[in-house]
Write a structure and sequence with these properties.
Blueprint: E1 19-21, E2 27-32, E3 36-37, E4 40-41, H1 48-61, H2 66-73, H3 80-83, H4 88-109
Antiparallel strand pairs: 1-2, 3-4
Helix pairs in contact: 1-2
This protein binds zinc ion (ZN).
């Protein structure tokens, strides 16, 4: 079993009930139940950054400061769901836009 959901990064190791479900009803070992149910993603149109924003919002609702949310979600683009769909365009843009994006995020957190 993966330690974390490969879509949102949520830890699932000690919580088999948080596993997503395949179309045949069996547990999916890679994604949590919030991301993956009955064989499909609950937010099929999400990009990695949408998932990051979504998780930061969720954590804010749970009372975590925004920078904790950011720390928690910054590895999301490296998870299997997102890295598999990384295309040439993204790869090309990546270096420049990532550093700008990170700088913007840090400023927002201060
Ligand atoms: Zn998840």
């Amino acid at each position: 079993m993966n330690k974390n959901c490969q879509s949102c990064g949520m830890p699932m190791k000690n919580d088999p009930e948080k596993l997503g479900s395949n179309s045949d009803g069996s547990p999916n070992q890679e994604y949590c139940l919030y991301c993956y149910q009955n064989g499909s993603f609950t937010q099929p149109n999400f990009l990695a950054k949408d998932m990051q924003e979504f998780c930061i919002e969720k954590m804010k609702e749970m009372g975590f400061p925004k920078f904790i949310g950011w720390l928690f979600t910054r590895s999301i683009p490296k998870l299997k769901r997102w890295s598999a769909s990384m295309n040439v365009h993204n790869k090309h843009m990546k270096n420049r836009s990532t550093s700008e994006h990170v700088r913007g995020q840090v400023l927002l957190c201060m």
